């Protein structure tokens, strides 16, 4: 009888030691989608010249009318090949790049993006550069439901949740 209780005690002690010595589970970081990685790469490449405060402002989705913001946005969208200087935002490519019908209301997104391209374009007028046009078109899109979706999505990408 004594032997049985010693074996039981020994097995419990051994179990306790094994549990204590087992390292805690290491959290595995989420794997970002190729689209999210492309967004982060463009963000990093185009943000090289920004100060920490400017970068933080953009990461918070605050887009003031300033030269560094206009140049950053033009660089970002051009790098992703979703902005062409000749035609503006590529609405169909944007919808597809951001998940298509699964993630965006296409019937809402296409007219909003194309409408902002048209409203903000001043072709034939030398007063506006393509960088200015990109900024104004982007700000216009931000004022739509598509812009609200974009802000949420980019926040998720930046925070590693997409």
From TrEMBL:
Name this protein carries in UniProt: Odorant binding protein 8a
Pfam families given in the database record: PBP_GOBP
Organism, as annotated: Drosophila melanogaster (Fruit fly)
InterPro entries xref list: PBP/GOBP, PBP_GOBP_sf
Keyword annotations from UniProtKB, A to Z: Signal
Any GO MF annotation of the entry: odorant binding
Signal peptide boundaries: 1-27
């Amino acid at each position: 009888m004594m032997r049985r209780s010693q074996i039981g005690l020994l097995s419990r002690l051994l179990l306790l030691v094994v549990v204590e010595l087992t390292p805690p589970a290491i959290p595995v970081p989420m794997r970002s989608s190729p689209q999210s990685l492309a967004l982060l790469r463009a963000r990093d490449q185009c943000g090289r010249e920004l100060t920490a405060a400017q970068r933080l402002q953009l990461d918070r989705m605050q887009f003031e009318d300033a030269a560094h913001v206009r140049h950053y946005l033009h660089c970002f969208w051009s790098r992703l090949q979703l902005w062409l200087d000749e035609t503006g935002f590529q609405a169909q490519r944007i919808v597809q790049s951001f998940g298509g019908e699964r993630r965006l209301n296409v019937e809402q997104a296409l007219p909003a993006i194309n409408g902002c391209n048209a409203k903000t374009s001043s072709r034939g007028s030398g007063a506006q550069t393509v960088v200015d046009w990109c900024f104004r078109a982007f700000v216009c899109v931000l004022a739509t439901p598509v812009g609200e979706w974009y802000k949420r999505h980019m926040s998720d990408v930046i925070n590693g949740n997409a």
